[in-house]
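Fill in residues.
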């Protein structure tokens, strides 16, 4: 079942097109990552999906309903974590959740509040004032608030921004548990390792358009295999000049200990190693799949392996 359908979405602010004809759909029970640099349109997309922004063109349908025409019944099926946690800092964690529970008319709210506090690991801090919480704890409390009414769709705008490593991995664990329970999750992130760790599918945005989409593994395959050749610094630039012009090499860069090459998918790295050895001495080599930061650079520069 399609939970979300975004059709030809255009959002303009002044002379800037924040979203430029976006179209995609999301199936139930999946985790979708919206990845891109600052200014790519991620938050505008989230605001459009929540009905907070009226696009100049196109529509967003959630559970089959146009979000701009839908009433409170649809919005009660969404759990939203904005970039700003928007918590009440001068009251306790449990008071924040009691207020949210009253807004959503949650029955047996005390039991549900206890459940979400335990889920995010804040049971022992339930009666502490929120201004005493660290950034990571506030983020976890905001996630608890988004989960309070047990929504089938979670929309998370940069859920780990500004948190420490420990809190980040706790939040990852919460998102994985939601997926295991069949929830649909949309998350925006600047962190490619986060998308790789959590997402079934990724949408890579650039300047309001979808630059590419697919699973992390599919996007890595499209970028090609990475071959790192360890060699002397004075030799790496000469080796790059010799190998970089080959059609087999999509992109090349010099790094601390030698030369890094990105090879077309059909190329056997052993062929390139044989060529490298014919030019001069190399100390070692390693072939690996690219990480997602490398995938983004490759897609942005147009150097993409042919399937």
């Amino acid at each position: 079942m399609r939970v979300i359908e975004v059709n030809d979405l255009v959002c303009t602010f002044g002379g800037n097109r924040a979203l430029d004809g976006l179209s995609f759909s999301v199936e139930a029970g999946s985790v979708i990552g919206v990845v891109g640099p600052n200014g790519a349109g991620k938050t505008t997309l989230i605001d459009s999906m929540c009905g907070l922004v009226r696009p100049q063109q196109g529509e967003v349908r959630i559970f089959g309903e146009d979000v701009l025409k839908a009433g409170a019944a649809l919005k009660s099926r969404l759990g939203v974590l904005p970039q700003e946690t928007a918590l009440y800092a001068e009251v306790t964690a449990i008071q924040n959740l009691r207020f949210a529970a009253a807004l959503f008319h949650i029955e047996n709210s005390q039991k549900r509040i206890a459940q979400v506090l335990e889920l995010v690991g804040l049971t022992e801090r339930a009666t502490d004032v929120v201004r005493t919480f660290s950034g990571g704890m506030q983020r976890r409390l905001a996630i608890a608030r988004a989960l309070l009414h047990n929504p089938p769709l979670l929309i998370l705008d940069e859920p780990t921004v500004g948190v420490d490593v420990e809190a980040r991995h706790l939040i990852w664990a919460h998102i994985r548990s939601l997926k295991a329970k069949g929830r649909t999750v949309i998350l925006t992130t600047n962190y490619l390792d986060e998308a790789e760790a959590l997402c079934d599918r990724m949408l890579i945005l650039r300047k309001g358009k979808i630059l590419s989409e697919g699973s992390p593994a599919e996007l890595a395959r499209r970028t090609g295999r990475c071959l790192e050749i360890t060699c002397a610094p004075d030799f790496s630039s000469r080796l790059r000049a010799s190998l970089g012009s080959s059609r087999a090499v999509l992109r090349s860069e010099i790094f601390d200990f030698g030369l890094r090459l990105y090879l077309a998918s059909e190329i056997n790295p052993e062929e390139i190693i044989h060529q490298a050895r014919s030019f001069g001495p190399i100390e070692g080599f390693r072939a690996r799949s690219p990480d997602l930061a490398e995938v983004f650079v490759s897609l942005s520069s147009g150097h993409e392996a042919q399937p």
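The two ends are 29 Å apart (CA to CA).
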